[in-house]
Amino acid sequence: MTRAIQDYYPERFSHCFGCGRNNPHGHQLKSYWKGDETIARFTIAPMYSGGVPGNAYGGMVASLIDCHGTASAAAFACRAQGHELGEGAEPVRFVTASLTIDYLRPTPVGKEVTITGRLMSLEGRKVRVALALAAGGTVCARGEMLAVQFRE
Ligand SMILES: CCCCCCCC/C=C\CCCCCCCC(=O)SCCNC(=O)CCNC(=O)[C@H](O)C(C)(C)COP(=O)(O)OP(=O)(O)OC[C@H]1O[C@@H](n2cnc3c(N)ncnc32)[C@H](O)[C@@H]1OP(=O)(O)O
């Protein structure tokens, strides 16, 4: 099976609540390449209810979009440098500088959603990513992220 983008994160960056493989309490989101775009699949548990039965709370939606966005930024930057994830180059590390979300319609719990990422622009340490979260083919939320390569 193909490794997820998050599986390439160094150990010290793998404790994120949203996507860290080493955080047993977190969501452990996994993002993958799909052609020139990225995709993640996730089923939101009913405990993340937004108060209306059957619908997720907005923070959960933002969390999934956030983590998929930073993973996408790392993958886009890596490919733009002419290599693929895991090809031995020093990993690029991105954090969210800005994230806007438009909540278009309610996001269901207990049903698989897909989160997709598309590269908008890449300029120095800055990567802009367009994101969408959909359920059953219907887009529930759109996001736009500015991810900045972290300086150690
Ligand atoms: C080959 C294998 C590859 C593997 C890859 C491994 C990758 C591992 C990656 C990741 C691991 C973790 C993954 C999970 C992450 C989940 C997401 C989060 O929750 S992240 C937590 C929430 N975010 C923060 O806490 C950030 C807090 N903010 C900061 O630390 C700084 O503000 C930072 C780093 C974002 C920028 O600070 P500066 O000092 O480094 O740089 P300055 O000069 O301020 O900004 C750089 C450029 O960005 C613009 N910029 C910064 N913030 C902006 C904003 N809010 N809006 C617009 N532009 C902004 C600036 O104007 C500047 O642009 P100009 O270079 O001048 O063109």
From TrEMBL:
Residues 54-130 form the Thioesterase domain. Keywords: Apoptosis, Cell membrane, Cell projection, Cytoplasm, Fatty acid metabolism, Hydrolase, Lipid metabolism, Membrane, Transit peptide. It is an enzyme of class 3 (hydrolase). SUPFAM superfamilies: Thioesterase/thiol ester dehydrase-isomerase. Coiled coil: none annotated. It catalyses: decanoyl-CoA + H2O = decanoate + CoA + H(+); (5Z,8Z,11Z,14Z)-eicosatetraenoyl-CoA + H2O = (5Z,8Z,11Z,14Z)-eicosatetraenoate + CoA + H(+); octanoyl-CoA + H2O = octanoate + CoA + H(+); hexadecanoyl-CoA + H2O = hexadecanoate + CoA + H(+). Its main location: membrane. The keyword Ion transport does not apply. Pfam families: 4HBT (PF03061). It is a peripheral membrane protein. Its EC number is 3.1.2.2. It comes from the Bacteria. The keyword Transport does not apply. It is found in: Cell projection, Ruffle membrane; Cytoplasm; Membrane. Belongs to the THEM4/THEM5 thioesterase family. PANTHER family: ACYL-COENZYME A THIOESTERASE THEM4. This is Acyl-coenzyme A thioesterase THEM4. It comes from Halopseudomonas pertucinogena. The lineage of its organism: Bacteria, Pseudomonadati, Pseudomonadota, Gammaproteobacteria, Pseudomonadales.
